[in-house]
TrEMBL record:
Gene3D superfamilies: 3.40.630.30. GO terms for molecular function: transferase activity. It comes from the Bacteria. Keywords: Transferase. InterPro entries: Acyl_CoA_acyltransferase (IPR016181). This is Acetyltransferase, GNAT family.
Length: 65
């Protein structure tokens, strides 16, 4: 992830990086938060997994900071 952010920062036309993480995946969400990503919304029922649906947490990081 550090390499991805480093590459993104080298592209002056890129201002932010966005990602989604499956709601309930605390390890991944915690990693992204430690890297400076912040949550800006939750998409309910975003992905079908078998006979149930899971939500996606939308996160972003401002590359100018």
């Amino acid at each position: 992830m550090c390499s991805v952010l480093e590459h993104a920062r080298s592209r002056p036309e890129l201002l932010v990086v966005q990602l989604t993480v499956t709601q309930g995946n605390a390890a991944a969400q915690g990693l992204y938060e430690r890297m400076g990503f912040v949550t800006f919304g939750v998409e309910p029922l975003a992905v079908a997994v078998g006979s149930r649906f899971v939500s996606k947490v939308h996160m972003w990081k401002d590359l100018r900071e």
